[in-house]
Amino acid sequence: MRNVQPAGAPPPLTPEDETPAPALEQLGRRVARGSAWVAVGYGASQVVRFGANLVLTRLLFPRAFGLMLLVNVCLQGVHLFSDLGIGASIVQHRRSDAAFLNTAWTVQVARGFLLWLATFAVAWPAAWMYGEPQLMWMLPVAGLAACLDGFVSTAIDTANRDLRMARLQLFDLAVQVSASVIMIAGAWLTRSVWALLAGTIAASAIRTVLSHVVMGGVRNRFCWDREAAASMLHFGKWVFVSSAVMFLAQQGDRLVFGKVLPLERLGVYNIALALVDAPTALIAAISFRVFFPMFSEMRRSDPDLEAAYRRANASMALLAGAGALVLMLAGPLVVQVLYDDRYAEASWIVRLLALGIWGSSLVHFTASVVLAGGRVKWLAASNAARLVWLLGAVPLAFRQWGFEVALACVVVADLPRYLFLALGCRRDGLHILAGDAGRTVKLVVAAGAGMLVLELLGSRSVLAVAVACATALAAWLAMNREPVRWYVEKIRGALAARRG
Fold first, then answer.
1. Each residue of 51-66: pLDDT tens digit?
2. How far is residue 484's CA from residue 468's CA, in Å, rounded to a whole number?
C-alpha cells in the first residue's frame, strides 16, 4: 500500500474589496461538486476494492494477507519518514507557476529513488524483527513502487488544489481497476503473496504514466528554483516531523500486533481493517482533497473561517456518524456473508473498530483546517500524542488482559490526537470542543438505540440488522436537523437548477 497524500494554474484570486460574496458562493459550489465527486468516486473504488478482496481471499490464505500487511507497514514507514509535504505544499502555497511545480517534481523524483534504497536498508531488520525471511526479498521489490511514484506528474496536486475532483476520481478509479485485474490474475496463476506485490507495482506504474498523459497541466521537467525549494523545505520540515510521528501513530497497532499475533490472526485483523477503513478513508479523502484546498484558498483571500468551518464540520459529522452506526450494527453480518469460516473472528473485530470511525473522522477534518493554516507543529504534536498512547496502553493491555482490551485501546487512541488539534484550532479562533462533544453524546444515544433493537429482536438476521440500522439512523438524523436541512436545501436547489 502506498502512502496516500492527503492531493493548470488555479483561477485568479478575488481581492477582498471586489465582490467577495460571489467568489465565496462560487467556492461553495466547487466544494459541493468536489465532495459529490469524491463520494461517488470513492463508492465506485470501494466496489472494485471489495470485489477484488473477496476474490483474493478465495485464491490466497490468511497468511498472505498478514505478510502483505507487514510489507505495507514497512513501506509506509519509509514513505512517511521522508515526507516533505510536496503535494500539500503545492495545494497550500500561493505560487503555482512552472518553476515552482518543476522544482517540486525534481525533489519528488530524488525522494523516490532514496525511498527505494531505504527499502533495501530496512529489509533485513524487518525480516529479523518479525521472524519472516520472505520480507528480505519482498520489501526491496515493493520499494520499486515508491521509486515509480516519484515520477508522478504534479498535475495530480494542481488538480487537487483547483478542486477538479471529477478528473481525479476517474483517474484513481482507472488505476485501481487496472491494478486489481493484474493482482487477481497473478493470484489465480501463482496462488502466492507475490501477486499482491505485482498489483502494488502495477498500480504505481500505471498511475505514473497516466498522470503525464491524461491529467494535463505543466509538463514536468527537471528544474531548481532556489526560492521555491527554500519555501517547500521550510513548510516541509515540520511535515517531515509530523509524518514520521504519524506513521508510528497510525500504524502503531499494526506494529504491535504484527509482533505478538500469529500471521493467520494478523491476516484476519487486516480483513477487518479493510472493512472499517472504508468510511474512514472516505472522510479523510473529502477532508484533504476538498476541505483542505477550500480552507487554503479562503486563507489566501478571506481569513474569516468561523461560519465555513461550522457548517462543513456539521455536514461531515453527519456522514461520519451514519457510517459508524451502520458498520457497528451491520459489520458482523457483512463478514458472515462475504467471508468464509477462516475469517469469522473478523465479525467482532469490525464491530469494535467501527466505534473508532467517529474519532478518526473528527481528527481528519480538524487536521485539514490546521494544515491549511500552516500550523504543522500542532499536527506533529497531535500525532505524537496518539503515538504515546499506542506504545504505552496497547502493549500493556495486551499483556495484562489480552487482544480484546488492547483493541479497545486502539479504538480510543484518536482522543489525545484530537485534543491537540482542537488546541491548534483555538489559535485561529475556532472553538470546536463543545460542538463535537455534543454530537458525540448524540451518536452514543443513537448507537444505544440500535443495539437495544438488536437485543430485543434476539436475532442477527438481515431483517433484524436492517431494523436496528434504520432505528439508529433515524435517531441520529432527528438529533442533527440543521445539517440534514442544509443537505435537503442543496438537493432541492440542484434539482431546481436542472429543471430550469
1. 887 888 778 777 777 7
2. 20
